[in-house]
Write a structure and sequence with these properties.
The protein has 380 residues and is mostly beta strands. It has helices at 99-106, 122-143, 202-206; strands spanning 23-34, 48-69, 85-91, 110-114, 153-158, 163-168, 172-176, 212-214, 216-218, 222-223, 232-234, 245-249, 261-266, 272-275, 292-297, 299-302, 320-321, 323-340, 355-366.
Length: 380
């Protein structure tokens, strides 16, 4: 009896086993999701919500976001971004004010303003700041029994330098960007902006550092000399009479672009790594604050917007997204999304509707089939 039995022989049969080659077919499934599909009572804000898929998706080999229709403009100043407030004080009060007004302005202390949330162009922002600064002083005078309308502040937008200049036609002033402004945000997940070294508040977006700026005295009126020497943006006051103006210029250019990239987080399926921003001590042996975040996002979605004064190349801009699973996921029934920017602040969509499409690549087991097809002569 031959004991060297072939390994492919069945123990109880002399017939050789024919191995079955298991084959799969790739089944591609698309699911379109709109922000209005969420349960608005459970998820009041569209930047964070969960949905249940129309049917359970099974045996998932990979998934990705294939397209997204997001708003092109977002509020670049809002309470949620914590960049709508600033404080200031008056100094060197013009002696030509009435004694009552002079006494009130001298003892005004620190005043503050809050600009309206919205999407601003530089000129619109300059106008808003001019109005709010003068209104803050006027309201202070009225609150103390004086009806004098204060209109000495002027905020100028330098188109060529892309910087803001703050001026006063009669009184000295201090922009107090070193003062921390308090915010009560509606969404508790928003990070504290003040702790950053950039994007920490209104001053940062205007081009200022986190410090106080005192207006510089000038005995000449200031012009917009880049296009018209006769165009004066800061002139001497006539009421009260003044021969000195005060001004300060932002040392850095303004940042008004708003969101240019939106990060989509997909609970349990993130696979994009990010560096944690705002490091200040990466070369130190002690207290080194270099850090990265592993699997922090599922998709990086570009926002195709050309903000005022900035140009971005839109060529090759595409959604970066995709996750491969080995072994394939058995099933997915629910998806939970979260939309934020790189610094971690949730995107304020202002309830503007948006949509995106998720692609599932699923493996389906099949028995291999061979077809023999005859093509009639009439088709050849």
């Amino acid at each position: 009896m031959n004991t060297n039995m072939n390994v492919n022989m069945n123990t109880y049969s002399n017939h050789q086993l024919i191995p079955r080659e298991q084959t799969f077919v790739l089944d591609r499934k698309f699911v379109t999701i709109h922000s209005n599909d969420r349960d608005i009572k459970k998820w009041p804000f569209p930047n964070h919500f969960e949905i249940t898929l129309p049917e359970t998706v099974t045996n998932i080999d990979s998934m990705r976001v294939v397209e997204a229709k997001l708003p092109s403009n977002y509020y670049n100043f809002s309470n949620e971004l914590q960049n709508t407030k600033m404080s200031f004080s008056l100094t060197n009060i013009n002696a030509n004010w009435t004694s009552a007004v002079n006494a009130l302005l001298t003892n005004a202390g620190v005043l503050s303003i809050t600009i309206q949330s919205g999407f601003y162009t530089p000129q619109q922002l300059a106008s808003e700041l001019t109005y709010k600064l003068n209104k803050a002083v006027s309201d202070y005078l009225v609150a103390n029994g004086n009806t004098t309308a204060y209109n000495q502040f002027v905020v100028h937008h330098d188109v060529v330098a892309m910087k803001f200049l703050f001026g006063n036609r009669s009184d000295g002033f201090v922009l107090r960007f070193a003062d921390k402004m308090e915010y009560t945000v509606n969404q508790c997940e928003q990070p504290n902006a003040w702790e950053r070294y950039s994007q920490w508040g209104l001053g940062s977006f205007l081009g200022f550092e986190k410090q106080n700026y005192t207006g510089v005295a000038s005995t000449t009126e200031l012009i917009s000399g880049w296009n018209n020497p006769a165009s004066k943006w800061l002139q001497f006051s006539t009421t009260p009479a003044s021969i000195i103006v005060y001004y300060t210029q932002a040392p850095l250019v303004f940042k008004l672009s708003g969101e240019t990239t939106v990060y989509m987080e997909l609970d349990r399926y993130n696979n994009i790594d990010e560096l944690v921003p705002f490091s200040e001590s990466t070369n130190s042996m002690y207290n080194n604050d270099y850090s990265g975040s592993v699997n922090s996002a599922f998709a990086k979605i570009p926002v195709k917007v050309v903000p005022y004064g900035e140009t971005f190349d839109s060529i090759n801009e595409q959604i970066i997204s995709g996750a491969h699973f080995e072994p394939p996921l058995e099933r997915i029934q629910k998806l939970k999304f979260r939309f934020r920017n790189h610094v971690g602040a949730l995107i304020d969509f202002q309830d503007f509707p948006f949509s995106f499409t998720v692609e599932f690549n699923c493996l389906r087991n099949e028995i291999s089939k061979k077809y023999s097809t005859r093509v009639p002569n009439v088709y050849t």
